[in-house]
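Is this the right way to post structure tokens for a design question? Let me know if I should format differently. Anyway, here goes:
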């Protein structure tokens, strides 16, 4: 009997259970801990762990080793297999819709924690280790939602209220719109799309505080705007740089339109009495998307098509291409036409979080027969259409009058953040060097 009992005790020890002697030592330690009133009693000598290895509570844990990651930007469902191979972890999505979230990717030697921070940067997704070797991805809060179509994302607007702009595009405005002591009207990308306006004149025609010129002073060509009654023809900016020419501006490459009311010499220089107008063009993003839109039909006098494609070539290089073509008559008018086509490209190079170099170029060509409107009956002081004259009557010379405009503009912009400060959850630049150069005709 003793021999069999000894074999049974040895088998229990070899299977990972503590011997009986250590069980009594543990019970004695518990009694002593209770008698000392819950004070901690340090143990000088390491004990034998159940698996046969030595453990020392005072010994610090070893730092997590770094891994080499080469994960390109893209949707999580496409790039997570590469991340799993590099990190040695198995990634689980709490919701299958998270697979469509666009990630900036990660490249370099990092620990798993550092790699996750870069992989999920600005995605609204967080991770947690649920079991050894397994990590689960989920939304960082229940209020957030997954945006599937990256084309509709506006970098300046509130994702939950796309009509509300959170900030202005210019680096001269360091605070959000709510904290900026100015009167601004900001038309976000969502507002521009809902207006379905193809030119800047059509966008501002229904904007409060802005009126359109009608050829006063003998100059009827190009866009002429009045802000608070003051001529703002020379106060039009494109990406924060004054546009020296007067032209007919298309909207196919516009991301946002910002109207600053009142004197704006701190932003636009001297002479801006009524206000200034800033057009924000589309920049290359860190997400892949494409968008095609068309209007009109086979028997319709208005035909228009646009294309918007963004591609991430490298984690540090993004490109974007916009195109537009339009063949249209003027509704309700004879002979008047408004034909145009244009192309715009943008490149963004950001090797680090603190340095960014962007370049863009746009070409637009417009031609057609202008519409001179409807004259006024000098006796009744009413449009002649009120006196029975057909509205589609054309009052120009078909063989003489025409509209033709060609615009070429290229911009190179460099930005270097020297240091930052923490403003709530966002990192704001404390000292930033910027240089912008433009050429156009």
């Amino acid at each position: 009997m003793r021999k069999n009992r000894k074999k049974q005790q040895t088998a229990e020890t070899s299977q990972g259970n503590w011997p009986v002697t250590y069980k009594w030592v543990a019970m004695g330690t518990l009694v002593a801990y209770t008698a000392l009133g819950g004070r901690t009693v340090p143990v000088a000598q390491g004990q034998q762990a159940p698996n046969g290895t030595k453990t020392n509570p005072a010994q610090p844990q070893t730092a997590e080793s770094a891994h080499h990651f080469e994960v390109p930007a893209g949707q999580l469902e496409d790039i997570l297999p590469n991340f799993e191979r590099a990190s040695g972890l198995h990634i689980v999505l709490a919701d299958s819709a998270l697979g469509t979230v666009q990630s900036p990717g990660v490249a370099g030697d990092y620990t798993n924690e550092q790699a996750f921070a870069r992989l999920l940067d600005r995605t609204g997704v967080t991770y947690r280790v649920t079991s050894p070797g397994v990590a689960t991805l989920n939304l960082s809060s229940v209020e957030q939602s997954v945006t599937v179509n990256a084309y509709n994302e506006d970098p300046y607007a509130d994702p939950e209220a796309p009509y509300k702009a959170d900030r202005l595009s210019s680096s001269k405005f360091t605070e959000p719109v709510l904290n900026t002591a100015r009167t601004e009207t900001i038309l976000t990308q969502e507002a521009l799309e809902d207006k379905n306006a193809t030119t800047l004149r059509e966008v501002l025609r229904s904007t409060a505080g802005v009126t359109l010129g009608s050829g006063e002073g003998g100059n009827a060509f190009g866009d002429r705007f009045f802000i608070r009654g003051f001529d703002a023809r020379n106060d039009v900016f494109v990406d924060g740089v004054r546009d020296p020419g007067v032209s007919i501006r298309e909207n196919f490459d516009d991301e946002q339109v910002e109207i600053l009311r009142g004197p704006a010499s701190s932003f636009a220089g001297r002479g801006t009495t009524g206000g200034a107008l800033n057009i924000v063009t589309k920049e290359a993003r860190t997400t892949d998307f494409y968008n095609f839109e068309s209007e009109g039909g086979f028997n319709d006098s208005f035909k228009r098509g646009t294309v918007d494609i963004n591609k991430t070539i490298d984690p540090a290089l993004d490109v974007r291409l916009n195109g537009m073509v339009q063949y249209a008559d003027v509704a309700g008018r004879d002979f008047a036409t408004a034909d145009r086509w244009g192309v715009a490209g943008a490149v963004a190079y950001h090797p680090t979080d603190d340095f960014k170099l962007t370049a863009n170029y746009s070409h637009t060509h417009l031609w057609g027969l202008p519409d001179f409107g409807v004259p006024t009956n000098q006796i009744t002081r009413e449009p002649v259409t009120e006196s029975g004259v057909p509205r589609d009557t054309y009052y120009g010379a078909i063989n003489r009058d025409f509209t033709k405009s060609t615009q070429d503009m290229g911009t190179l912009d460099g930005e270097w953040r020297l240091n930052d400060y923490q403003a709530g959850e966002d990192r704001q630049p404390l000292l930033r060097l910027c240089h912008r150069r433009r050429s156009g005709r």
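Format looks fine. Someone answered above. Worth noting: Residues 20-35 form the longest helix (16 residues). The two ends are 105 Å apart (CA to CA).
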